[in-house]
Design goal:
heterodimer; A: about 200 residues; B: alpha/beta; Cholesterol Oxidase, domain 2; 8-stranded mixed sheet; 22 strands
Chain lengths: ~200, ~500
Amino acid sequence: MRKKQDIKFSRGRRRFLLIAACLFPAAFVPMRFITSPSWPKASADKIKGMGLKLLGAYECAILYHIYQQITLEKDQDKIIQAISFIDWYVAFIGTRSLRELKMALRIFDSIIPLYFGKVARFSNLTWSEQTHIISRLKNGPALLYPLFMAIKELSYLAYYRLPENYKKLGYAGPAVVEGEAPKRYNLAYSKLLAATGARP
Amino acid sequence: MIFTHQHLRGKTQVKGDVCIVGSGAGGSAAAAYLAAQGKKVIMLEGGSFLMPKDFVQKEEKMFPQLFFEAGGRRTSNRAIRILHGQGVGGSTLHNINLCKRAPDILLDGWHLKDLNAQSLRPFYQQVEKDLMVEKIPEELFNQNNLIFKRGVEALGLQGGGLMHNRQGCHQSGFCELGCSYNAKMNALRVYIPKVIENGGQVLANCRVQKLIWREQKVQGLLAQVRDAESQQVVGEVEVSADKFILSAGAIETPALMLRSQLPDPYKQIGKRLHLHPGGAVCALFDEQVDFTQGIPQSYECTEYLSFEPGQEDKRIWLVGGSAHPIGVAGLLPAFADEHRQLMQNFNHIASITPMLHDTSCGEISIDSAGDVIIRYEMDQSDRLQFKNGLKAAARILLAAGAKEAIIPARQMLRFKNPQEVEKKSFELGDLDLDVVAVHPMSSVWMGEDDHSSCVSSHGKYHHLENLFVADTSLYPTSLGVPPQISTYAIGAFVASHVY
């Protein structure tokens, strides 16, 4: 006999899949073309002009809003720097994870508000509406939660990479200064490295 | 010598006696053994060659260097995060140096023809000597481990100090981000130099795409060279050799075998994956818990772990956690103000990790693009064990004087006293808790029968003449203890049977 929490999970999943299946063609596609994601005007040009490598401007616009909600960062330049950092970082997460992240951002913008009864893009909602939706994700369908967690992890990765943020926690940060490692530790390894231009 | 993406642009052809894929514990021990026998060893490593100066103690810079997919790799249902290492030295670059032999009863219980506790003992002894394995004295424990010990002793549980392979440790607490002080006696420091000294070559930034085989023999392999920074493909390497050893870990080894479409008549490759799933239980203390002073993971609790027959309900090993801000921030379930408030306690949070000696079996497969798919779900027995492990960790932390113990699940579970731990009933669904697995294993397991195993007890692949496996993939069961030292030992053991 299956345990109670499994049954709950299955119901939640079924409900989510059913709603997603109905909403996707009905709402996602037209929304994609009729409305566009919004971002603070002052930031739009900066984001577009920052030379994105892997994330598109659309994904960055959504990320802008979620990052702000998660970290409560107010400084637009710092948010843009964080997004630029995330764009660099995702080069390392693998093609599959990158695909999933992009999809997660799009679902976040188009599907999640609908699930919680808002007929609008996440990026077009007011601050308090956005906060309300993220809060409710904790109790929402199990399948939505990992989407949020993936974006949340990246957001805090970008946020707590900055000394000004981690020092507030009483965390001193690295004990070594980048680029100033004592030579004695590296000497033996330098000898292992083939000379410039050498071939195996 | 070690060659990197900067040396390997364009097309490169290399020939050797033995080609080893992966340079972690198993691969490096095997390579050192064979190079010492006079064989020309070629090692390929997907990650970069990092020196102590490159370990800059910053999570955001080290995750992409040290972990596959920057540490974000997950099971297909996204329930378990899998951290497995890359870089010349593999997972031994980032591990916390725990050296704990697999118990004899487990090794003998595998009922293998040639590999058992007795046959593996000399290899354990040699590896422990090479890596200078020593018990960590209590005065070097970090505060988190002292709290952990206090809790274990207050409850009268079984526990003790751990053995590590480190020399000249600065006790900075950044071990899981690589060692800036060259204190880890790991594959990079101990075995790779021996390989090179004996004429071996290490090709870094080379991700092996495919083994080329015909007439029951592997003829060669093809690898892509990727630029370490941009991850763009900048070259191709083709290696031919008499023997091939796969030591790319229990995720990448079976993935490579599947991509290469090796003969596998009984469809065994990739099955039977074990992960040692681990959770985290945090607790708030009045005292400061500084993770940057002292050695992490220096103490263990073995009260809930047994390998004896009839004690299958004791499959939890408890060890201290390790924490830096980004890791902690990602773990905590809240966001915004609530998250900020929790993070304000950063220097007062202690943590314990329950690690499950799992019996659930997962599977590694690949998609049409050759990307890895990891399927794994804990069965009911493992779920119950895991939950008990979380509760045990919470009890220990409270016994050590915590104001509050927290299981950072989707709905945060908070306990003010041991009675609450006992009384509060909770169920954890697959996606309710951030489960982390750092020891994938058993995906290409040993056995004598080619119908029910992948490789022999010498590590030779059943269906090809010159292909061996020497990494954590080999273990027929979950190991129940950190696999580092066993993997070095088995790497050398397999190498001793290659010729």
